[in-house]
UniProtKB/TrEMBL annotation:
It is an enzyme of class 3 (hydrolase). Its cofactor is Zn(2+). GO terms for cellular component: cytosol. This is adenosine deaminase. It comes from Rhodocytophaga rosea. Residues 7-324 form the Adenosine deaminase domain. Belongs to the metallo-dependent hydrolases superfamily. Adenosine and AMP deaminases family. One of its GO terms (molecular function) is metal ion binding. One of its GO terms (biological process) is adenosine catabolic process. Keywords: Hydrolase, Metal-binding, Zinc. Its EC number is 3.5.4.4.
Length: 333
């Protein structure tokens, strides 16, 4: 089964972790293929999540000017088009891109405009999720969520918290998520990756997101699984990334198949296309090979993703039509 032409939805995708060698060469011609491999791509096994995240540093360094941000965003659209993605939510932390004089509002505007350009060029539907980071202060988290509110009606569609969940508690970010809830801002939150089921429980209790980034360790707690299913909380699962960050020793021990069989809403995502050196087609191939997933599994996951997407019902309806038409087309390839 060849999944290259299968239509795909991607909800969990970090912009600063997905720079192709092509765009890195444009931004800094001195970076050799060897340096790119070493600095931008993680090994099959990292020490932990913090070790994995270190591979994003070089990408962020190359995303500090208007031109750099625009080129990186458009490069990602090229990657998505090659992977037959029909809808993507692209996330990044705007406060990481201020080192050469841009202010946070300018950063968001630049990426928003580039996403608009990418949509026009490729026909891919897309939204932007703004991230706060675990090590940020309460003020930085509030500043980020205020940007989501300010850009309401643009391509900015939601709010997230990312980075090292095991290293930093949630206290500094409760105010920002309370604000998001008050303003009706769509939220997702990284949890159940570097920490176990208790991380998902506290995230749900304090942040009230409709989606969980990763969330795979929810499988450790039957009561939590029941809660997720009952509340319709969507899990953004990123299999290869979870193996690299040592959540699981190997793909055969990953919980994705177990989670799917419970009937929980989940999607398959790359997380970081460059750091994990993967595409959605490769993720699908992996699950097909290891867990014997078929077309029906991936269709269901993509339908779950459409339902959980931070977009309008009109767009969701259009995406479902594209999904079924794309599957028919893929069968004829």
């Amino acid at each position: 089964m060849n999944f290259t032409h299968f239509p795909k939805i991607e909800l969990h995708l970090h912009l600063d972790c997905s720079l192709s060698y092509k765009v890195v060469q444009q931004l800094d011609p001195s970076i050799s293929p060897e340096t790119y491999q070493e600095s931008f791509i993680a090994p099959p096994k990292c020490i932990d999540l913090a070790d994995y995240i270190r591979r994003a540093i070089k990408g962020v360094e190359l995303m500090q000017t208007e031109q750099q941000l625009r080129l990186v965003t458009l490069d990602l659209f090229e990657q998505l088009q090659a992977d037959h993605v029909i809808y993507a939510e692209i996330r990044f932390a705007p406060l990481q891109h201020l080192k050469q004089g841009l202010n946070p509002r300018q950063v968001v505007q630049i990426v928003n405009d580039a996403v608009e350009q990418g949509i026009r060029a490729t026909g891919i539907e897309a939204g932007i999720i703004l991230c706060t980071l675990r090590h940020y202060s309460q003020q930085q988290s509030l500043e980020t969520v205020h940007l989501v509110e300010e850009f309401k009606g643009s391509r900015v569609v939601g709010f997230d918290i990312a980075a090292d969940e095991a290293g930093f508690p949630i206290g500094a970010h409760i105010a920002a998520f309370d604000y998001a809830k008050e303003k009706g801002i769509a939220c997702t939150a990284h949890a159940g990756e570097a920490k176990g089921a208790e991380s998902v429980w506290e995230t749900l209790h304090h942040f009230h997101p409709s989606r969980i980034g990763h969330g795979v360790r929810s499988a450790e707690n039957p009561a939590l699984l029941e809660f997720l299913k009952h509340k319709g909380i969507h899990l953004e699962v990123c299999p290869t990334s979870n193996i690299q960050t040592n959540v699981y020793p190997s793909i055969t021990s990953h919980t994705v198949d177990t989670l799917y069989k419970t009937g929980i809403s989940l999607s398959i995502n790359t997380d970081a296309r460059t750091i994990s050196d993967t595409t959605l087609a490769q993720e699908y191939e992996l699950l097909h090979k290891i867990f014997s997933w078929q077309e029906s599994h991936f269709l269901q996951c993509n339908l779950y993703a459409i339902e959980a997407a931070f977009t309008t019902e009109a767009v969701k309806s259009r995406l479902r039509e594209k999904m079924y038409a794309g599957i028919l087309s893929a069968k004829q390839q």
